[in-house]
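User: quick one, sequence for these tokens?
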């Protein structure tokens, strides 16, 4: 799944840090970046600390991902745009 697709679904991103990724992933706003596997492990542990009730960091990043992505939810976009076309093609 691509970063932009994830944001459109409100899913924060943990991405490998490479040139230009910071144009999409804003650290501590809509995702996190890592350079090593241990950094990724630390980030995942932080994100799921207190799961499922007390995931404050994950909830915050989720909000940032939603605001970065589409203004509407994926299901709304599907029902409004894609589904009518699929129904038209299928008949």
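Assistant:
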């Amino acid at each position: 799944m691509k970063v932009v697709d994830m944001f459109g679904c409100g899913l924060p991103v943990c991405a490998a840090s490479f040139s230009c990724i910071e144009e999409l992933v804003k650290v501590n706003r809509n995702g996190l970046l890592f350079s090593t596997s241990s950094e990724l492990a630390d980030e995942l542990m932080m994100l799921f600390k207190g799961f499922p009730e007390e995931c404050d960091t994950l909830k915050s990043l989720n909000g940032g991902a939603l605001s970065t992505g589409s203004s509407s939810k994926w299901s709304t976009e599907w029902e409004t745009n894609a589904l009518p076309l699929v129904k038209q093609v299928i008949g």
